[in-house]
Amino acid sequence: MGKGRPDKEEPQMRRLLQLATLSLVALLFFAPAAWSQGQEVTVRMEDNFFDQANITVEPGTTVTWVQSGNNPHTTTSYDGLWDSGMIEGGSGGTFSYTFEEPGRYDYFCIPHESMGMIGSVTVSDATATASPTATATAAASPTATALADTGGPPVSSLLIALVATLALAVYGVIALTLLRRHSTS
């Protein structure tokens, strides 16, 4: 048993372990940010109530209200940030608003507020990189189609996380290959 080979492999293995640790830290740091960006939440406007009336979301989340009832409805913020206008019953029309600033945003349906058709969106301050203004988009029309299931992260965020994971894995394999070649020479 010679001492030459184990002494030479030990620093290389230490470097490989450091590289693996650094890659894992990078993955843990960047992957959650990729998952949390651009989330979408759906609130249904049923006959005289909001389904999921009180929700909590992260900054950057888009909330889409979908007309699912037979009566006409609105989603209107008490502080004037958004007003969908009247969305006709049975239309499947939608209204979306992106929440950037942490806080609580109370809203109501204009014709049905007195019947208790109210709700709130609480935006947590967990990743408060919010911009000073929020953006809103509206699409309330009789020809609107129902939204697809938006319960999970958007595909683009999932794709970013998968590509980052694959890139780190490939980088690790290349580094390991180079270390093995270097140790045999």
Blueprint (SSEs and pairs):
Layout: H1 4-36, E1 40-46, E2 49-51, E3 54-57, E4 61-67, E5 76-77, E6 94-99, E7 103-108, E8 118-123, E9 135-139, H2 155-184
Parallel strand pairs: 1-4, 3-8
Antiparallel strand pairs: 1-2, 4-6, 5-7, 6-9, 7-8
What does this structure look like?
- The chain is α+β, with helices and mostly antiparallel strands.
- The protein has two domains: 60 residues; 112 residues, Immunoglobulin-like, CATH 2.60.40.
- It has two helices and nine strands.
- The chain has a five-stranded mixed β-sheet with strand order 2-1-4-6-9, with no helix packed on it. The chain has a four-stranded mixed β-sheet with strand order 3-8-7-5, with no helix packed on it.
- Strand 1 and strand 2 form a beta hairpin.
- The longest helix is centred in the first third of the chain and has 33 residues.
- It is rod-shaped.
- The two termini are 19 Å apart.
- About 16% of the residues have low confidence.
